[in-house]
Design a protein that fits this description.
Largest sheet: none
Strand content: under 5%
Number of helices: 10
Radius of gyration: 20 Å
Number of strands: 0
Helix content: over 70%
Number of domains: 1
Shape: globular
Structural class: mainly alpha
Order of helices and strands: HHHHHHHHHH
């Protein structure tokens, strides 16, 4: 594995962003809207509830973490779809570029894009709404790491789906975070879910993150073994999604789908 091709994949995306402000705007515009909207909702609930629940910490904090995960996932898929939309995907693999190098390039692009979004979220949430995000210090790192790894895995999985079924299937990519959010308990404890949904939640690393963060915010004890379990799940799922992407790529090469890659290639 070579660093130059990986850097080349990242550099291409950076050139695209530099040449088109329209591509840069969504990196921080939507997260800013989310934080501002949920920040005022949280402030309003704090004012009218009269309870000891800190909605800024519990509700706005959950939004920030979930947006971070979403930006990670969409950073991978958007970089992949840029190559699909520009019909550049075939050019990549006409060169001696390894699949692992291409995937790492997508991950590198996702890191750059998500860091911009995270910086905007942190500035708004802490400076405008007083979210005590930094009070946890290094204890936040494992939580963010689990969300980061799961976001990467889900982004690779979504890219594999588009590679297999064609660009017309990209509609399956964007709703994925929304489809998962009811199962991971972003805004409510997993105990409120029916048994069959809790069974699915056990296989999703973010569910452990939000359960533990909710316990910390409300001053309740949390299971110290849940984060290592979530980390193990996220790592295994990344490997599984990367394996699936490689298998799908080999299939598209063997069957000729890669050469015929177009909006109609869904066979």
């Amino acid at each position: 594995m070579r660093l130059e091709p990986i850097a080349g994949v990242v550099l291409r995306q950076l050139y695209l962003m530099r040449g088109s402000p329209v591509r840069v705007l969504p990196m921080f515009a939507w997260v800013a809207i989310d934080i501002v909207t949920w920040g005022f909702i949280s402030r309003y609930l704090d004012a009218v509830s009269g309870s000891r629940i800190d909605f800024i910490a519990s509700l706005l904090g959950a939004v920030l973490l979930w947006d971070f995960f979403t930006r990670i996932m969409q950073g991978v898929t958007t970089a992949f779809l840029e190559d699909v939309w520009s019909r550049n995907f075939l050019n990549f693999f006409a060169s001696p570029l390894l699949i692992s190098e291409y995937l790492l390039g997508l991950i590198g692009t996702s890191i750059v894009a998500s860091l911009v979004g995270l910086a905007v979220m942190l500035v708004l949430a802490t400076a405008v709404f007083g979210l005590p995000f930094f009070s946890m210090g290094l204890a936040l790192v494992p939580f963010l790491l689990v969300l980061f790894l799961f976001g990467i895995g889900l982004g690779v999985l979504a890219s594999a789906l588009v590679l297999r079924f064609g660009p017309a299937s990209e509609w399956m990519v964007w709703p994925l975070p929304a489809l998962l959010s009811p199962f991971v308990g972003v805004f409510y404890p997993l105990a409120t879910l029916p048994a069959w949904m809790r069974s699915i939640a056990k296989a999703l690393p973010p569910s452990y993150v939000f359960e533990d963060m909710r316990a910390i915010v409300t001053g309740h004890p949390y299971d110290a073994t849940s984060l290592p379990l979530a980390l193990g799940l996220a790592l295994s799922q990344i490997l599984l999604c990367a394996w699936l992407f490689v298998r799908v790529h080999r299939y598209t090469v063997r069957t000729g789908l890669l050469a015929r890659y177009s909006a109609e290639s869904i066979g």
